[in-house]
Automatic annotation (TrEMBL):
SMART domains in alphabetical order: EFh (SM00054)
Regions of compositional bias (Polar residues) in chain numbering: 24-36
Natural source organism: Serendipita indica (strain DSM 11827) (Root endophyte fungus)
Subcellular location, principal: cytoplasm
GO MF annotation: an example: calcium-dependent protein binding
Keywords: Calcium, Cytoplasm, Metal-binding, Repeat
Low complexity bias (residue ranges): 12-23
Annotated PANTHER family: GH27120P, PEFLIN
Descriptive protein name: Related to programmed cell death protein (Calcium-binding protein)
Cellular location(s): Cytoplasm
Domain EF-hand: 63-98, 130-165
Superkingdom: Eukaryota
């Protein structure tokens, strides 16, 4: 799920690569018409920064898993020693080559940025990596037709497998809410959920169920909560 830039599809390549610095002035002078272009002038006066390969050499923490350290360094593109939201989103790829959606990335940052620095350090990354790997196993288990996405029956089986006693109606609502494609309109494909949204859907179901159970003190399946409690229950979910 962490891309290593080996098989990145064309659509995942950066839209623009930095222009190479000019070797000498002759090439520029032979094409005077381009100097009237304000964008060209800007690029000429402000040469692009050096390529990211100029990052300083970094040492792993003592006892670090070297395979994991290598993945961490690949994700930490700017070599800052920590992974920010943008770096994490660029690294996490669904099986259909889309990057993880922003809400899922924010959810993962929220779970694993335990020191609340706003970034993921190496130790935090170890937890995040294992979490993703574990969820990959779950996803593969329930993606029974190996389509790379979770469809209605598979979602029903997954949520039941986790122990949530949800009606088919509620499972369909979850499917439509987290579907990676539009679910209304003529000729639309059947709704299905990519890995990133599947993880988020399951976390939301767990969070809401936990909130309900905490409020259902006599465990009779009914709760009495006020408006603030009701709103915060939903808004705390990713
Ligand atoms: Ca970084
Ligand atoms: Ca499937």
């Amino acid at each position: 799920m962490f891309s290593r830039n080996k098989k990145r599809p064309v659509s995942q390549q950066p839209a623009q690569t930095p222009a190479k610095p000019q070797q000498n002035g002759q090439h520029l002078q032979s094409r005077p018409s381009t100097t009237s272009n304000p964008y060209y002038q800007h690029a000429h006066n402000n040469p692009p920064p050096p390529p990211p390969t100029a990052r300083p050499y970094r040492h792993p923490p003592p006892g670090a898993d070297m395979r994991l350290w290598q993945v961490f360094c690949n994700v930490d593109k700017d070599g800052s020693g920590a992974i920010d939201l943008r770096e994490l989103q660029q690294a996490l790829i669904n099986s259909n080559w889309t990057t993880f959606d922003l809400d899922t990335i924010k959810m993962l940052m929220n779970i694993f940025d335990t020191d609340r620095s706003g970034t993921i350090g190496f130790n935090e990354f170890a937890g995040l990596y294992k979490y993703i790997e574990d969820w990959q196993g779950v996803f593969r288990h329930y993606d029974q037709d190996r389509s790379g996405t979770i469809e209605e029956r598979e979602l029903f089986d997954a949520l039941n497998g986790f122990g949530y006693n949800l009606s088919p109606y509620i499972v369909r609502m979850i499917l439509h809410k987290y579907s990676s494609t539009p679910v209304t309109g003529y000729g639309m494909p059947s709704p299905s959920i990519t890995f990133d949204r599947f993880v988020r859907a399951c976390v939301v179901v767990k969070d809401l169920t936990d909130s309900f159970r905490a409020a259902d003190r006599d465990n009779d399946g009914w709760i009495q909560i006020n408006y603030d409690q009701y709103m915060s229950m939903f808004l705390k979910s990713p």
